[in-house]
């Protein structure tokens, strides 16, 4: 049984991923960094609003609406990167004594499920955004169209689906390679 050295350091590429996998890793990292910047902006906005409310009788208009819409968008950007660097929560209580190729097969199945879940969520989020656009729903205070932040979540979920399917194939290759 041969072990393949794998690099899952967060800011490097993986030698075992190949060109498409490394491109996927870079793209998902860039999207996650963008989501982190959105969260930083939300924190600053919330601080300004809370401190302004307490000290100067000033609040950012619609701060809760902005927080809700942008936090959902930012959150959707992290999933693909997390999956690609094996940042998912895994319970290996039953698998820690299994052969590496069997664990890789289980990881393959798990990644396939992540890919299917990402595709389902992307599809339903896009359908929901289109429905919201049709009815013209807007936020209560700022009157922002609600469909826009929902539609902006779709690329993160599509990337999660692609990452899940890619990792499923990658783990299957590892399982076959490790069983030799």
TrEMBL record:
The chain crosses the membrane at residues 30-51, 66-84, 104-126, 146-169. Its main location: membrane. It comes from the Bacteria. Residues 42-173 form the Tripartite ATP-independent periplasmic transporters DctQ component domain. Pfam families: DctQ. It is found in: Cell membrane. GO terms for cellular component: plasma membrane. InterPro entries: DctQ (IPR055348). It is a multi-pass membrane protein. This is TRAP proton/solute symporter, small membrane protein component. It comes from Geotalea daltonii (strain DSM 22248 / JCM 15807 / FRC-32) (Geobacter daltonii).
